[in-house]
Amino acid sequence: MRRTRVLATALTAVSLVLALGACSSGSDDAAGAGGSATGGSDLGLVTGGTLTVATEGTYRPFSYHEDGSGTLVGYDVEVAQAVGAKLGLKVAFEETQWDAIFAGLDAGRFDTIANQVSITDERKAKYLFSAPYTTSHGVVIVKDGDTSITSFADLQGKTTAQSLTSNWYQLAQESGAKVEPVEGWAQAVALLEQGRIDATINDSLTYLDYVKEHGPSGLAVAATTDDSSQSAFVVGKKRQALATAIDGALADLAADGTLAALSEKYFGEDVSK
Amino acid sequence: MDWDLFSASFWPILREGVRGTIPLALASFAIGLVLALGIALLRLSATPVLSWLGRAYVSVIRGTPLLVQLFVVFYGMPSVGIVIDPWPSAIIAFSLNVGGYAAEVIRAAILSVPTGQWEAAYTIGMPRAKALRRIVLPQAARVSVPPLSNTFISLVKDTSLASLILVTEAFRQAQNIAAFSSEFMLLYVEAALVYWLMCTVLSIGQDRLERRLERYV
Known about the structure:
The complex is a heterodimer. Chain A folds into 2 domains: about 10-135 and about 230-265, 3-Layer(aba) Sandwich (D-Maltodextrin-Binding Protein, domain 2); about 135-230, Periplasmic binding protein-like II (D-Maltodextrin-Binding Protein, domain 2, 3-Layer(aba) Sandwich), CATH 3.40.190.10. Chain A contains 9 helices and 13 strands. Chain A is an alpha/beta fold. Chain B has a single domain (about 5-215), classed as MetI-like fold.
């Protein structure tokens, strides 16, 4: 009796997983069909004629709302709009929490992500990347005056806060830190300022922008990565045509100076190469 | 389907469910029930100020999202100098929340006890407090078990929100594994199964409790 019940539960579980799996692969086909309606016919877009781009909308200065509640702006947002314009596509943004962003891409909810997605080997195994449009360094941010952390090695045994799916999470773990997962930069900084964590690792550009916005923030850079990281648009593994198209648009935007100009506008220097 | 990953991650998720989710739900529910009884009595009070207080509490709790309540306790309080650790923060937010919902259940259950029961208690000389404790509440308890179980089952699932304020429970464990394996679909479904399993076990407990309380009919 007990055995049958266990078996029945297991079978229910299996069929549920299979059914959901079938749904996710089904949405890829649906996306392909939708794309053939209008422009970008061979790109397999989620919505024909429109490049659907996922972004956080809370990540200054890459993707955020003007004055907090105005239109969606930012470096990544404007680069994505410029890419869409080059491809003759409308651009629709889907604002999603970072930790759900790859799950959404897997599920075929959007065509690409414009949110400073760093190019890593792990991600390359699962997704396609366009040419990079940002180059930056990672920095360890601590409370001003904290002299116990001056390098990545000092993170051993310390507590940091990172987004679960970010490459900074892995870097923090590799450095021996105890990592608290958070939704994004805003929560990480809040925890640091409240003294609940010792440090957080993020992009140097994010930190510089935060200081620019908040004035003397009581935070300081304790260490910087040697190697730089590059960010690019990311698309699903089966969307080679879309990745190639974005590459072409980015090359045009680099050649006509658009990328350099956008980069200058948000960072005061060219970070697009 | 990556069966190896599925089976390798099932126990870690269930373990955090047993160590994180269930204690969190039980502690919050216990505190929430005490709070709820107080709020229900406030609402039933003949004194306008007290009944208004109870009404305001229920309105605020039911009118605001649980996630916002969690964030106010955890991320908001530090701005006025009160820094509370993740676990106590979660228990505070969840018990305040349960307090609001369960208060309405308890109030309705008390009202469902026929007025004659009160009158009978008064006739034999019981004061109001004693009549409540000895005559009315035991009868109200029986009536309120099914809806309160419902509140509890909801709470078990709502605790997944605690993953957003650094509390380790079943869903956060699933997110951890998903982040490293990039198998989001698989791990989310697996987390769903674990919650389902926990809720099923708890429902069996509810059935038993209901049958026990039938004796008082």
